[in-house]
Amino acid sequence: MGNKADELVNAIAEMDEGKAIDLANQMLAEGIDPLEVLRLCRVAMNIVGERFEKQEYFLPELMMAGDMLEQIGAIVKPLLMDQAGGEEPETLGTIVLGTVHGDLHDIGKNIVTFMLELNGFKVIDLGIDVPIEKFIDAIEENQPQVVALSGFLTLAFDSMKETVEAIAEAGWRDKVKIMIGGGQIDEQVTNYTGADAFGKNAMEAVSLCNEWIGGAT
Amino acid sequence: MTFSNLTIIGERINPGFKSTETLFTNDDFKGIQELAIRQANAGAAYLNVNCGRRSKDDPDFLKEVILSIQAVVDIPLSFDFPNVEVQELCLKTYDIEKAKGRKPIVNSIAETRWEMLELANIRPFKVILMASERMEDGRGKPNKLASEVFETAQRMVNTVMKSSHDFNKEDLIVDVSVSALAADTEGLTKMAIEAIRLIGEDPDMQGVHIMGGLSNIGQQLPAKAADGSRLKLQLENAFLTMANPLGFDFLLGTPWKEYGPLPEDNYVYRIFTEVLDLSGIEALRCIRKFYKAV
């Protein structure tokens, strides 16, 4: 199996989608543990992530690798459900996420949701233009470790600040980490909103969650 | 070669540009003036003014920025903040004499914020109409189809023209919104092009201008294309090459960039036309060709 394992990692890392899916199917047919296949996917994703950091890869490769992992995940999931006796596999942690009120942008938010889910987190995606109360309700219902606020417009900074303040007033500020991201967000905006950190891209969002929740592979 | 019919709104007075952010942080009004002059000299017809968060939090600063710019250039300004109070201050501060009688631009009104139209009571202005989002069932929704963008534009133009305020069609600039191509798995770039075509062809919207912020298109992509050219500039030009003849005649951009049509056999232009017909992972695979030789 050694060779096929290496080949699978390579196929994903080199963006060879057809080959990656074929290999994953072959390995599962040969009786290889679905969890091992998923582990190899994460190894490959880490390579893609490193290349992204080094600017050898860019957003399209990140999304392509994500797409391959999603496809393989869809093949593996029913097998895992059998193994676990029909129960949903465990996740690393829960993240409540949404684009803050007054802002309708969803592309960046969707990429972050996608990458977090691929990396084993449960994401409660509240959508766009999310009222403050909806965040609070979702936090109370799901008890997440992390709240992620997205926004592209300048006016989103104020909405983020208001949302962070409302989370504090509801008594949740010490129980959740808050990260923000989108467009022109930087250290200064992070301080302004009262969030704990910002991510420049989806990979940084994953790193922050790994750091805070202590997941990692 | 340049585009014959393209009006540039200079985009640089915006803290999104790191060098401008430094000017703002240091209250460097001299530096802001130099940036205004540089854009005007490079051919900007308007100057967009965006002071980021300080637009709202620091009215004195915003006012001072407007006064300093108008002290050194005579081109009209475009005020970039979707908020009535901020726009009110901008419009009251604006000195139309200094701009030789030319109206400023309000950037921008959307269906989710029609109350801003009443600002026309302060002084006449040109206005950017955001067609990338619509009001539906009392909530804002992003438009994902060319027909939705077109219908939003149509509704907005009608509403403005039927209002009690005195607008000409030439005062209206429809913003179709240009997205980052690097993440475009849903065909949003094609949507923008198709929406421009629909608006440009519509007899009732003749005279209305069409624009978009082009700097988004190259976001998250590397600096160099596989043929060694400057990828972001080439992408902007590829978009313009296609969109300008369809009626895209206003541009929020950097006036000293070399905007000009690309020949059909240009490497980036060829791949751009390919990407437009793709979606999902196929689009991403094609987008890689911009910077990865295959």
Structure write-up:
The complex is a heterodimer of chains A (217) and B (294). Chain A has 217 residues and is an alpha/beta fold. Chain A has two domains: 2-83, Methyltransferase, Methionine Synthase (B12-binding Domains), Chain A, domain 1, CATH 1.10.1240; 94-213, Cobalamin-binding domain (Rossmann fold, 3-Layer(aba) Sandwich). Chain A is 58% helix and 11% strand. Chain A has nine helices and five strands; from the N terminus they run ααααβαβαβαβαβα. Chain A has helices at residues 2-13, 17-29, 34-53, 59-83, 107-118, 132-142, 156-169, 187-193, 202-213; strands at residues 94-99, 122-125, 146-150, 177-181, 197-199. Chain A has a five-stranded parallel β-sheet with strand order 2-1-3-4-5, sandwiched between helices. In chain A, helix 5 links the parallel strand 1 (94-99) and strand 2. Chain A starts with a helix and ends with a helix. With 294 residues, chain B is of the alpha/beta class. Chain B has one domain: Alpha-Beta Barrel (TIM Barrel). Chain B has an eight-stranded parallel β-sheet, covered by helices on one side. In chain B, helix 4 (59-72) packs parallel to helix 5 and helix 6 (146-162) packs across helix 7 (188-201). The two termini of chain B are 30 Å apart. The A-B interface holds A 15, 17, 55, 58-61, 63-64, 67, 104-108, 111, 128-129, 153-155, 157-158, 183-184, 189, 192, 201 and B 15-16, 50, 52-53, 55-56, 81-83, 133, 139-142, 179-180, 182-183, 185, 188, 220-222, 280-281, 284-285, 287-288, 291.
H/E element sequence of chain B: EHHEHHEHEEEEHEHEHEHH
Total tally of structural domains of chain A: 2
Task: Report the major sheet of chain A.
Answer: 5 strands, parallel
Strand content of chain B: 5-15%
Poorly predicted runs of 5 or more residues of chain A: none
Please give the alpha-carbon distance between the first and last residues of chain A. 21 Å
Q: Give the rounded overall mean pLDDT of chain A.
A: 91
CATH class of the largest domain in chain A: Alpha Beta
Principal-axes geometry of chain B comes out as globular
How would the global form of chain A be characterised?
Answer: globular
The CATH architecture of the largest domain in chain A comes to 3-Layer(aba) Sandwich
Largest interface: A-B, 28 and 31 residues
CATH superfamily of the largest domain in chain A: Cobalamin-binding domain
Task: Determine Rg of chain A (CA atoms, Å).
Answer: 18 Å
How many β-strand runs of chain A? 5
Overall helicity of chain A: 55-70%
Low-confidence stretches of chain B: none
- Please indicate the percent range of residues of chain A in DSSP E strands (runs of 2 or more): 5-15%
